[in-house]
Every structure is written in structure tokens, then in C-alpha cells.
Write the C-alpha cells for this entry.
Amino acid sequence: MKNKIFNYDIAELTEFLIKNNFKKYNATQIFEWLYEHNETNFNNMTNLSKNLQDFLTKNFTTINLKIVKVEKSVDTYKFLFCLEDNNYIESVVMLHDYGKSVCISTQVGCNMGCTFCESGRLKKIRNLQTYEMLEQIYLIQKELNIKINSVVLMGIGEPFDNYDNVLKFVKLINNPKTLAIGARHITISTCGIVPKIKQFSEENLQVNLALSLHAPNNELRSKLMKINKVYPIEDVLKEIKNYINKTNRRVTIEYLLLKDVNDQERHALELVKLLKNLNVYVNLIPYNETSKINYNKSKKVQILKFYDILKKNNINVTIRKEFGKEISAACGQLRSKEVNK
Ligand code: SF4
């Protein structure tokens, strides 16, 4: 099987080329074609020798994902990709006033089984490789002719359940010679796998960490997220505290608001108690209703009440802008439709 060029950083490609009697500078040339000129056909890389073009064609593939569908609303594009093994994944592009961000998938399906999540209904089939994560961004940039400014790992999959590939991906896209996405513009979102949060705190990376909390007590969180039975709230928050102390970085707490489930004043007050004195920032997420899951979106007035309680108690908080209501914007919806076909 051929190697995947988008798995390689420049040092690895240089080593591979030198081993095969090519020159160090050839790696730089190839990276310029791939990442500056968006050229993925080796035969069009006109400053490479014919010998090197043939060698690359024989040994490497470039694009392995296929765009199957693009759904568009005013400020959002949703991409459905088909992988080489005919599995499907999806990514969402959001056009903010301050830049363009993409939420990518890290696994085919997910084993975490959060009850509000369409992705969790389709079990994990496999982890994505580094090149499959990178190609999502690469193809989106090419298709829409845009430069992505920030990347969130919050699509299908639990990033820390695919730790090594995710870490390699983050380092790769952060490199100025590849996609050059600033570390502070990359966010890894986890449902709270405690040993991996600990491991991640030792990586010395400047990327952002987000924790999907979604409930202020164990009883409720265990109903929403089965990972809570393995790593309950007190263990996760203890590790988050260690992470903050070690890295000196603020952590985002994701809180999905579900009507009459976790959006009442008492929940907000419980959340305040939990997060007081922690260097965190709470992102309240209005739920994106899907036909298959029995949760509803909180009323606007309730969302604002929840927000006010946090704010009045000095918790840093924002309400996430809603994107792509007209399309299948809830994580996993587009893939789920395709798989169910
Ligand atoms: S919310 Fe995230 S971790 Fe939970 S099932 Fe969905 S994809 Fe998996």
C-alpha cells in the first residue's frame, strides 16, 4: 500500500527522501506545492525532476477522502466525506465575523454513547488516521477557496480515544510549513477521559482544552453521558484543576442546554458551586434538535436566565451562536442520514 503524504511532517519526508537518494531541499519543494499552491498532482510539481515525480507517484497518495455532499446555510457549510473503506465522516465550517473555523471528526462513530448525540448512536468503527483529519481541512479550503483560521476537534468521535493520531495531527497542522494554524486557534474537546487529560497536560502544547460537562451533578451527568460512570465529575474537575495549574491555561467548559433536563436555575446554581475558583470559561450551547433523539432545545428566556446566574456569580460565560439551523448541523446528523440510507 502507498504511503499517505499528508501523514508526513517535513522532517519525516526529508528523512524518507534522503534514504532514497533524493535531496533535503526536495522536501521543502514538495511541501510548498502541497500547502502553498494546493497542488496534489506530483506530475504538476514542475520544479521536481521527472525521476522524483515518478518516485512520489509510485510511493505516495495525496487526497484519499472524497466529498460526497455539501450542505450550506447562511453562515455554515456541512461536509460529508467518504473514506477509502467507504465509511463516512463529517465536518462543519462556520463563518464567524472574526474568521473561519472548522469542526472536524476524529473517529468513525463514537463509543462514548452520550444520549443527546447523533454520533454516539452509531458505534465506533475505527479511529481516523492523521492524514484523514488533515485532509478534511485541506479539501474544505480547496473547495470553498478559503483559509481556515481555527480548528475544533469536536465532530464525530472522542479525540482522546484516538490520542496518538490526534496529537500528531495537532502538531502537524500547527507547523508553519503546513496549514499553519496557530496553537491557540486549535481546541481539543473531550468528554472527560481523566488519564488522557493528565497525559495531555504533560505535552507542553499551547492548544486549548475544552471539557464537555453538560450537567452539574453525577446523577444527571451519568444519565446524559455514560463516561461519567467511569470518571465522575469530582475526578474530572480535579484533573482539570491540575491541568490548569500545570499549563497555566484556561479551560473551556461546554454545557449543552437541554429543555427541562439541565437548564433550570438550580442547575445553574449547582454549576456555579462546582466551577467557583477554577480558571474556566463556560460555553452555553443551545441544543440542535434532531428527529431521532428525544431532547428539546431550551427556551431563549431560560437560556438567558441560566446565563445571568453564572454571570452574576462571576463565572466567565458566553452563549454559543447557533449555526446552520437549516441544515443537518447537529454533530453526526448528516453521516447518520447517509448510513441509514
Ligand atoms: S458527544 Fe462526543 S463523545 Fe459524546 S457520543 Fe457524541 S461524539 Fe462521542
User: Anything to note?
Assistant: The chain has two domains: 3-61, 66-340. Residues 3-61 form a domain with the DNA polymerase; domain 1 fold (CATH 1.10.150.530).
